[in-house]
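User: tokens in, sequence out, please.
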């Protein structure tokens, strides 16, 4: 896993795009994306077109893992085909969600860059959402690596801290999850990835058990050849 993550480090920067070769297509760095600085934008959102997706059978629950047990990643599963435009940098509490032009179905992969403090959601390689995050404080850091979603609970309350964790997507058996939070400058978590609650609700709606969440600390790949939504 360490070798795989090391291969992602071509350029340091705030936008995380995880990718791999598929059909000989290389992924390139998006230099214009600067999502880790302060910005005057709040909750940009474009509603998706009405689509009717076929009913899917329930996903089997993956095996539980601790934060020190990330899974191996197939590079061919991490292909970026489109990135969303961000009109300037993000500040805490900001997010975008735009499913227009993306496939109605396909594998969901979530990427988290702790250094840039951003999370991106990809469906079939098309970015459909991105948000500024909270992450673990120094004494309880967020783990690095790839973790499948093992549980979904829209109304979860932490049994460790007696705190609400709305739209919780569990990543590890020892308390790491993605969930809705009050994302403000200076706040931190006990290792979880906190996102704005409206964004968490949308992510909860598209994510399934077994979908992969890849957490890195400043790793990125080029996405210049990926289509940029206008």
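Assistant: Sequence out:
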């Amino acid at each position: 896993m360490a070798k795989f993550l090391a291969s992602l480090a071509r350029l340091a920067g705030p936008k995380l795009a995880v990718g791999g070769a598929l059909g000989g297509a290389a992924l390139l760095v998006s230099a214009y994306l600067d999502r880790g600085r302060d910005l005057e934008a709040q909750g940009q959102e474009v509603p998706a077109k009405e689509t009717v997706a076929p009913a899917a059978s329930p996903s089997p629950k993956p095996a539980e893992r601790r934060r020190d047990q990330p899974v191996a990643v197939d590079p061919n599963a991490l292909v970026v085909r489109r990135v969303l435009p961000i009109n300037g940098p993000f500040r805490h509490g900001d997010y975008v969600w735009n499913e227009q032009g993306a496939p109605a179905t396909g594998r969901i992969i979530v990427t988290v860059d702790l250094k840039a403090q951003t999370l991106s959601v990809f469906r079939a390689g098309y970015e459909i959402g991105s948000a500024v995050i909270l992450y673990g404080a120094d004494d309880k850091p967020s783990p690095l690596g790839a973790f499948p979603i093992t549980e979904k609970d829209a109304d979860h309350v932490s049994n460790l801290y007696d705190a609400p964790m709305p739209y919780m997507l569990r990543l590890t058996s020892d308390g790491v999850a993605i969930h809705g939070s009050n994302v403000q400058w200076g706040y931190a978590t006990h290792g979880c990835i906190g996102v704005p609650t409206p964004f968490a609700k949308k992510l909860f709606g598209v994510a399934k058990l077994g979908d992969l969440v890849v957490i890195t600390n400043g790793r990125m790949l080029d996405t210049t050849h990926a289509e940029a939504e206008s």
